[in-house]
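Subject: CHAT domain-containing tetratricopeptide repeat protein structure
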Amino acid sequence: MVFADPGEARARAEQVLGDRPPALHASVAHQVIGIWQRDFGDLRLALTHLRRARTWAARADSADREADVLATLGVALVHAGRTRQGMDALGRGVERGSGHTRARVLFRRAYSWWVLGHHKEALEDVRRAIPVLRQAEDVIWTARALTLRATVHLALGSVERAVADFTAAEALWDTTGQEHDKADAVESRGLAAFRAGDMPAALRLLDEAEERYAKLGTPTFMLNIRRCEVLMAAGLAAEALAEADAAVRALDEIGGQSTRKAELLLAAARAARLAGEPQTAIARAALAVRLFAGQRRTWWETHARLVLIGARHAAGHASGRLVADAAAVAGRLAALGAPAAPEASLLAGRIALDLGRTVEAERHLALAARSRHGGPPLARLTGWAAQALRARAAGSPRGVLEACRRGLDVLDDHRMTLGASELRARATAQGAELAALAQRASLVSGGPRRLLVWSERWRATALSAPPTRPPADRALLSGMTAYREIAARAEEARMEGRPVPALERDQRRLEREIRSRTLHMRGEAPDGGNRFDVGRLLARLGEDTSLVELAVLDGRVQVLLCGRGRVRRFEAGLLAAAETEAEHIQAGLRRLAHPGAQARLPVVEAAGRRLEELLLGPAAAHLGEGPVVIVPPGRLHRVPWALLPSLRERVVSVSPSASSWLRAKETAPPPGGRQVLVRGPGLATGGAEVPELAARYGGATVLEDDDATVPRVLRELDGAGLAHIAAHGAFRADGPMFSSLRMADGPLIVHDFERLDRSPYRIILSCCDTARFASVGADELLGLVTALLPLGTAGVVACSSPVNDAAVVPLMGALHRRLGAGLSLAEALRDARGMLPADAVHRATGWAFSAFGAA
């Protein structure tokens, strides 16, 4: 019962002990309480009860009872870090037990071998146990043994064997009432899905396991560890670090298992390393190494040493000793049969290259490169990274580019199995090094055209295909409706000055549920897609339009100027300096949004001149006279491009990539060209431009007051030719997919837009902060605008900072008048700025808006 209904089992055992039971029954009751405390509570109390259980078993003169208790005690001692005592107890249990009982003890010793990382010994013990358990028709323990064997296979990289055992175990669990074991089986299948490269299935199964554990009221520390592993692979390292640290605190509070604490610290160290926090990673990994060493867990200690060496290298350390340490770890991992061995060899080779030891580096990198031809996607990626570094060390740009191409192809296929745009965007971080290596090789050997191809190869790739949409997922739609209602109530309470902690807790809970369900979605099968073609781009640009793609290599901006049949390269300033200047400009624009800040105008204009020098450099003098398309890196998404002197009087549009601009350019408007005008609540001007626009467009659909609800707005936006939305915008840096526009019934969020079959061909967002994005992955953006671009929108006008609501009204009126004259959004926006009064407030308002796309 302790794994079917843990709480009830503990209560029943305490009841038995309260009734002065005979020795045999007392032994069982103390053992049950010991198991509960071992797995769900205080390990010290567990050891106390299990020792009492052994004493009562000896008094009962039952060898099998004593053997069974010794097995449980042995596992508890191993989890407490007292490895030798634990394995001794398990050994005595094997000797004392017979037949069926002995098989159960062998299973638990196999489990302990697995905890310690002795996989060969674990497989041997479980191999001996399974036939006896089957012969005894012990369904529960047979299922446990199959689950354990599958888990050991996974640790050794044998995914197919693991899946076969998990499947057989699950069929047995279906015939039992062992709810905790069933939850463990679901969790284990999630781990198998992850090892097989199926990230959405892994996330879905781990979430299902968590729900099952929650119903039982049992802690889930092993689940925390596995979820951290999946989150890291999904590019969510910061979330993994937070989860691991929180689990360590919870474990310490209950006096839980020392073995689990060490594993959680290792997960935290890995996450911190990936999150760019090397000092945190060093601290967590060093403590994990000490704990594993004290627990005599060589397998785990070796993995922790690998993370510790990687964190020290990331912190700037490089020495011959560090190379030797990494090589020794690689050798030990290979001897243990650990799939992480190539990762250690890659690290050794990377450090050796930093020290200029090319011969030594080649030896280590050649070992790592063997993994490029088989295994899960991220393992193959490690191999191709090693192969690219080998080629760079050998002075072969062609070899570098081939290895990078093959590696990024692997990651492309992996990304397209992910249905959620957030996961696709974050997964690109895994290929950032390959993309950078390829760009450097292109710069050395291939000229501007090749550099442009490789700049495009890994830029805004999450926008290359629409996210998967689950129209039949009733739970997701229900959750989003509840989220809107709670968010609307919270906003109303804030405006009335009432406390909102309970509503905010509900809102965060619903956000987690919505995000979780979207991350479960699978993507479409990869179809290869359309590769970027420089010739096609130049043909579309013609003789009049220029496209400026800003690539960043080693921290410096490289300007790729495309147009009039050729691609030219110019070197500009440092990206870090440009980011600082852009933030100063944003602060200035916020000030200028309020009357009385006229004196700030020259300061902002001077900053614009400095920013132009940093971002365009000498290329500014070669832009020609025609329209300009700017393709900035993700970290420069908030630059108000119209403020740069050479762009101020031009037709300027912005695009996340040249490929995205091409798609927008070649997108045909929908038949009919319906116009939709939306006015949300609470605007300072009341959305004053909307009545004027309604009169201008005649038959336009106007949604305002109670008609401006999210379901109605989405229904009308789908397939529209032009949409204008006047509503409060809110950007969520902590959760960009929950950035929103306020409607009558609550927020219209990015996840809502992704449910559209086809978003409006042109959309104008006359709201603050609608052009703000979160930069994630290698060079990806998440936000309102980027949600629209893959869904059929060819042009967007949006704002990157807070603006003066009153000044927006004449800007929008002028913009629509110029659209009515047949101009594009970028042309209309340029002209509309020129029609505004010349005061600081109106000029700042005009600069804050940008045109995206090509419509």
